[in-house]
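Try this one yourself first.
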């Protein structure tokens, strides 16, 4: 108990000294001047399930100067102890106690870092906008695991201009399967080569395997969305997250791009992807930000849900853990596969992305952590050349090939590709 008290006193003293210094600096010089960046990265929401897995990955990064942040000091200190016990290399994080209750401006701590990442969802309910605003106005890069499209739209409307002015890259939604969907889509489209003039590409994104739990974050987000208030037309607008998109690029009229069930030649029976609407809205922001004219369809293979059910049945107790942190066995034995087929002018290019481990937890956690490392300047070649500030998706500001290579190197993803001459595709 005495050891814990001494730890808390030491952390509190150090944090107080820094906070006082920063508050004084900002008070004297104004918000237009940034505090010294003594950290590479800050992870907010580190004491949650996804945050814990992300922290475990970050603790293994050599030379990383970072901090974990959240509302409850005791939980954060406990996490530091757990990370130290995991063995191997340990980059010890600083602890920052910060409640997103509006009483203290997050600028007092986000400005210490090159990038801030957040796993504290639902973002519409837990003060997520406060961190986005602080980063966008202060020139600090940001990424999160958000799913609430109406909240994302408000971040686009409210902070895109501020982020462009400050140079901050605000990256929305880095979890599974938006990040995998965004990455696979750009790799598939890239395999077709450059478009000419008004050439339109067709892209099918088909989730083939999802063996893992359904995270508490996803369930809480669904609950938040059911109780949220936003313009009704947003719900059916395929380009709700791309409000400034050129009319010429708005080729879709349905959010998921198709009706279900449908028979697609070369694919068979296609059914809804549980994550499809979240993915589709964000992918279209990527397409329009990159000037791509793409007809998008998202769905799942008809065998995906039976395989998922069988996987859960093979792991006793997994049903009761659907809204909790997964057991070590469930976390390790999970798997996923997501296939993308891009077509244009009689040619097609297919990319199959896959990985091991529970996708909702392992991929989401490591995807968030790796996006943060990229935005903090720790991963050479992961950002597009000449990328400026603004509110982005992952692939509208990151280099698909460079980021893929990084994710391969940490054993998060595998990729297979093939090209062919297409016959006309039939959808029934």
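Now uncover the answer:
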């Amino acid at each position: 108990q005495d050891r814990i008290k001494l730890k808390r006193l030491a952390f509190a003293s150090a944090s107080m000294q820094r906070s006082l210094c920063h508050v004084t600096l900002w008070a004297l010089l104004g918000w237009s001047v940034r505090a010294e960046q003594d950290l590479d990265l800050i992870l907010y929401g580190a004491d949650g399930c996804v945050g814990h897995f992300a922290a475990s990955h970050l603790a293994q990064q050599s030379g990383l100067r970072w901090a974990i942040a959240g509302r409850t000091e005791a939980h954060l200190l406990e996490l530091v102890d757990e990370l130290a016990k995991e063995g191997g290399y340990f980059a010890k994080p600083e602890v920052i106690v910060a409640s997103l209750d509006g009483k203290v401006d997050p600028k007092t701590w986000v400005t210490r870092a090159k990038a801030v990442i957040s796993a504290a969802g639902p973002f519409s309910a837990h003060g997520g906008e406060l961190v986005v605003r602080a980063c966008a106005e202060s020139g600090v890069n940001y990424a999160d695991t958000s799913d609430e499209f109406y909240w994302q739209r408000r971040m686009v409307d409210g902070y895109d201009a501020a982020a462009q002015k400050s140079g901050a890259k605000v990256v929305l939604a880095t979890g599974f399967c938006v990040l995998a969907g965004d990455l696979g889509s750009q790799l598939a489209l890239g395999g077709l080569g450059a478009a000419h003039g008004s050439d339109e590409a067709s892209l099918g994104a088909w989730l083939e395997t999802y063996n893992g739990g359904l995270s508490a974050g996803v369930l809480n987000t669904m609950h938040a969305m059911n109780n949220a208030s936003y313009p009704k037309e947003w719900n059916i607008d395929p380009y709700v997250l791309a409000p400034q998109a050129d009319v010429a690029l708005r080729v879709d009229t349905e959010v998921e791009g198709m009706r279900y069930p449908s028979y697609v030649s070369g694919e068979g029976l296609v059914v809804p992807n549980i994550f499809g609407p979240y993915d589709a809205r964000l992918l279209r922001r990527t397409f329009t930000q990159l000037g791509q004219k793409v007809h998008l369809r998202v769905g799942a293979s008809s065998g995906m849900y039976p395989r998922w059910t069988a996987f859960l049945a093979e792991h006793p107790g997994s049903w009761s853990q659907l809204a909790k942190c997964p057991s070590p066995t469930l976390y390790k034995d999970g798997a996923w596969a997501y296939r993308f087929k891009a077509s244009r002018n009689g040619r097609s290019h297919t990319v199959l992305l896959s990985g091991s481990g529970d996708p909702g937890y392992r991929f989401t956690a490591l995807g968030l952590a790796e996006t943060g490392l990229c935005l903090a300047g720790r991963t050479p070649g992961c950002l597009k050349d000449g990328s400026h500030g603004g509110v982005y998706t992952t692939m509208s500001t990151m280099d698909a090939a460079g980021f893929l290579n990084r994710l391969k190197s940490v054993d998060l993803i595998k990729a297979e590709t093939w090209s062919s001459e297409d016959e006309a595709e039939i959808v029934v």
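Discussion: Confidence is low (pLDDT under 50) at residues 15-33. The CA atoms of residues 147 and 278 lie 6 Å apart.
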